[in-house]
Amino acid sequence: MNLIESIVAHEGVVRSGKLHIAYRDHKEKLTIGHGCLLDDRLEISDEVAELLLVAEIAEKAGRLRNVRGWEEAGPVRKDVLLEMAFWLGVGGCLRFVKMWNAVRHSDWPRAAAEMRDSRVWRDPKTRGRMNTLANRMETGTW
After folding, report:
1. Does residue 36 sit in helix, strand or coil?
2. pTM of the full predicted structure?
């Protein structure tokens, strides 16, 4: 046994399928994973933030790999789809049905137009980000 195995065995975990669920520990502290306190952690380092980001992206990528159209997109366009899934959730990204249909047909101008024909694009607070992503979708470049 090693340190990680020992902590996992003693701390336990609350899950829903493959997902870890936040729970209250014996001291009523909000906890997630294998005993990682959230109540006491109001700050995280850049390294931890990046680890969380990379893990989230990998999880989203795993879910999008099975979506028809994913394979048709090149690296930049896959990054656009991943950013949308990260930002809007995978379900939110999948609600762009017409965009995905255009992606399946490699019709990049239409995919970008469908992104711009959305509530997210019409919202002044999110228009800039969506427009940047739509430009990347259309051109396939950063």
Report:
1. strand
2. 0.81
Contact between 63 and 94 (Cβ < 8 Å): no
Count of structural domains, the chain: 2
Check whether residue 50 and residue 97 sit in a common domain.
yes
Six token digits for residue 90: 């995978």
List, in sequence order, the alpha helices (H) in 13-123: 46-64, 75-94, 97-104, 108-116, 119-122
Reported as a single tens digit per residue, the pLDDT across 56-101 is 899 999 999 999 999 989 999 999 999 999 999 999 999 999 999 9
Q: Determine how many CB atoms are found less than 10 A away from the CB of residue 138.
A: 18
Residues 135 and 65 in one domain: yes
Show the domain range for 27: 3-37
Question: What is the C-alpha to C-alpha distance for residues 51 and 25, in angstroms, rounded to an integer?
Answer: 24
80: Cβ contacts below 8 Å, ≥ 6 apart? 73, 133, 136, 137
Structure tokens at 63: 């879910």
Q: Are residues 31 and 90 in the same domain?
A: no
Residues in the chain: 142
- Tell me which residue has tokens 């101008």: 109
Are both 80 and 130 inside the same structural domain? yes
